[in-house]
Predict the structure.
Amino acid sequence: MTLIVKNEVLTSFCNSLSKTDFITVDTEFLRDKTYWPRLCLIQIGGPDQEAAIDVLAEGLDLTPVLALMRKPDLLKVFHAARQDFEIFYRLMGELPFPVIDTQISAMVCGFGDSVGYETLVSQLIKKKIDKSMRFTEWQKRPLSKKQLEYALADVTHLRIIYQKLSQMVDNNNRKSWIKEEVNALLDPTLYTFDVREAWKRLKIKNPTPRLLGIIREVAAWRENEAQSRNVPRNRIARDDVVLSLAIQKPRSLNELGVVRGLNDQQKNGSTADKILAAISDGIAVPIDDCPKVLKTQKNKGKSRPTSDLLKVLLKLKCEEHSVAQKLIANSDEIDELARNDGAKIRALNGWRREIFGEDALALKHGKIAVTMKNDKYKIINI
C-alpha cells in the first residue's frame, strides 16, 4: 500500500505504468463546501501495482500523471467516470483518452441502469467493500491505513471488474453498443458549464418566455457569483429566491429589500446592483430572444396510455437482452415515440431499433400485444 508524496517516486511509478496496456483510475475529492471540486487524492492501479497520489502534498508535480491520461496507447479504466472527468478536465484542459467506463460496460451485461461499484465488487468478485470510510474528510492529513485501503480498493477491484466485463462484452459482441455512450462522456461541453444555461436546472411552474428570460439572467448572476467565490450556488441564493426575484421583478433597492431570502449584503451595495442589473437585463431582452416554452404538455396527456404501454415493452425487451433501459430510451424519448412514428430518437436507429424500436412500432399499430399470465408480461403476435 503506497501513498506517493514525492516527485521522484511519482515519476518512477508513472513510468512503470506507461508500459502497461491499461490502468485503473479513481479520485477522492470534496465539493460540499465549494463550487469547484477540491481534488485530494488520485488513485491509479496497474496490472500488479497501485498507489494513491497525494495531490495536496507540498511541491508535488502531477505532470507524470497527466502524461498517462494523455497517452494514446494506454487505456484508462474508470467507474462512473463523469465526476472524475470533470476534475481531469480542469487539471488538463482536456479529457483522458482512450477510456472505458465499467458502469457503461455493465449496462450491456445485465446489471441494470447506473450500477454501483459496490454491487459489481459483490457480484463479480464476491467481496464486500468496507463502507465506513465513505464520508472521509479527504483533505485532512495524515490519512489512516484504513482510509488508504478504502481509497485503493477503488482501483484494485476495478481491474478485475474491467477484465470480467470486457470478456462478457466481447462474448456477446456488444463493444459497439457501449462505444456511443463512452463517446458521449468525452464531450467537452459536459465539463464547460455556460452560466447562461444555469436556469435550466430550476423547476419552473407556468413559465412564459418573459419570465424565463428574467430567470435566465438572475440564474446567471448566481452562477457567476458562485464560481468566482467558489461556494455552492445555494450559498449565494436558493432556487426559490431566484424564482421570487424573477416573478417580483424589483427595480429599486426598496423593492429588492422586501424579497424574502436575500441577506443584507444582497439588499444593498454592489451585490444589490448586480441583482437589479440582471433583472433589468432580463426585462429588456427582446421577446424573440427569450427562452421558448415547450408546448408538449397537452400532447403528453393524449399519448400517456401509449407511453405507458411502450415502457412495459421496453422493460421486457431489455430484460430479454440483458441491457439497461436507459441505453435504449429515456422517458422523454418514449413519449416522443408514442406521439410520432418518425421520432428522431435513439431507439429507432441501429441496434436499438433491432431489439426494441421495431417491436415498439409494431405494438403501436396493433401487430403485437403485451399480455399477462401468471403475473408475468408476455409479447404475442396478432
Remarks:
- The radius of gyration is 25 Å.
